[in-house]
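// run 5 | inverse folding | seed 20
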């Protein structure tokens, strides 16, 4: 399985669009340039939610330190 950067960006835009349209406060963190944030994300995703191979891909959602999940399907509001 390969994952293209444009696929990841599209999923991120879907999540951000959903949060903005529902006026849900959020902080978007770009882990591509922040090694500490990337390690934090990898470490704080529960083991049962980790992919079988490789690292978890964005977008991943947290409420403070609580893992909320990942969104791979289109969001319809």
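// decoded
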């Amino acid at each position: 399985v390969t994952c293209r950067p444009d696929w990841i960006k599209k999923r991120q835009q879907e999540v951000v669009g959903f949060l903005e349209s529902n006026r849900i406060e959020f902080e978007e963190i770009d882990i591509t340039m922040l090694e500490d944030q990337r390690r934090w994300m990898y470490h704080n995703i529960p083991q049962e939610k980790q992919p079988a191979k490789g690292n978890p891909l964005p977008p991943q959602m947290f409420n403070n330190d609580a893992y909320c999940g990942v969104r791979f399907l289109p969001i319809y509001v």
